[in-house]
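In this supplementary section we document a worked example of the pipeline. Step one takes a protein sequence of length 464 as its only input; no multiple sequence alignment statistics are reported here. Step two produces a three-dimensional model, which step three serialises into structure tokens for compact storage. The input and output of this example are shown verbatim.
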Amino acid sequence: MNIYIHIENIIRELDGKLLVAILAASRGHQVILSDIESLEKGLKKKILVPGIFHTKSLTPSEAKITRHQAIIENGSLISSMDEEGGLVEEGYERESKFRFSEQSIEQASVIFGWGQDDTETLSRVYSKHSGKIYKTGSPRADLWRSSFSDYWSISKSTPKRPFLLMISHMSHANYVIPFYNIIADARKGGKFKRDPMWFSKKFGMAAEHYLSTAAFIKAIEYFSKSNSDYDIVLRPHPNESIQSWEVFLKDIPNVHIIREGSVTPWVNRSFAVMHNGCTTGLEAVFSEKPLITYLPFKQEYANDFSIGLGHKVKTKEELLMKVNEFFNFSKTNSLKNLYDSSVDKNKVFKKIYFDENELSAKKIIKVWESLSATNEKLSRPNNWIKFKMFLTIIKLRGIIGRLLKKIFPKNFSQVSYNKEDFKFPSLREKDILERVTRLQHILGIKEKIDCKILSEKTILIKRS
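The serialised model returned by step three reads:
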């Protein structure tokens, strides 16, 4: 079976999707992990034969529905797990109508859910399609398990001293692209039509994100003056500008601004996690890592579910006291005693399904195999040399296009950013091969797995 897995955001998605790819390859399937342009054009030009096209969402924008329809007409099947997941929000009602529609779900052959919350809501709202909705859990969350602790290599950026992990989730204030581009993209994607209040909400969220950013900066300055025993690792959201934080925190000692790799190893190695509403808060609860929710002002647009987790503090003074408490306990290896027993882990497990006996990645592959069992077209061989040459042509055309825009800017619409540059930086072969080897060892896979980098944004994984 041919499996084509779309990756939009490397930092967030790569590791979980590598896990799926390696397990699938060990079962005899051929897997491509790549950006949307390479997959879409490869299927459209029939350079890639039909397969399972696994995408990161079924958001019902006109462009995505058109893209998926073309992929279906070429013989492939659409599969999806929403990478946003609605994990930080209370319930899933809004997400079910904002990120899905009858038409987008109709196009999909199968939809995988993070847990009970999303799968039950989707099955109720789109009852006609309930048979294609599966509660599998996410491969990203598979990697939170202790059995994968050896997968996470120690970064050279890791501070030598103990550190508090501060999670920034203020992308509307610190986004890589200008705020007006966020509005333009939302309008183009039809988001304002699906939710008429979304336009006003965006401005309200941006205002709160700026206030939260200022509060974080003041807290970090206060920590720096009041503490000399541990460091702070500030982890920007994947869409945030690291350069912004470098300007904001310039010359403040013992602060490290790091967005390298997945957040999981940083959670594991910290003595505590501080956030203001994000998915990492759920991961900290699952890992029983001390979690602090910093609420310096009343927030109207906060992520209600995630800010309800952890030890809540409102001032920088309270924050310092709580962090110091965790740090002092960490020196005696008794952090588990400080885990907030008031946190209802069952609420987290309602959002994220865990099966102790089987990985979510394996559940997903088994569903794909049930689809391919009656569709031989999905298992026809690809000409990988031809596909690699095709990817080279795409790259050359991109280089020529960017060059022409520089030479003749008036002949092209002005675009002030390139999403792919920060969401999907170029792959490094050595890094990918090391990750694959570690996963294969942890999974105990004896079959020889080939991993080839076909382009700076495309990985082929298959059994030898």
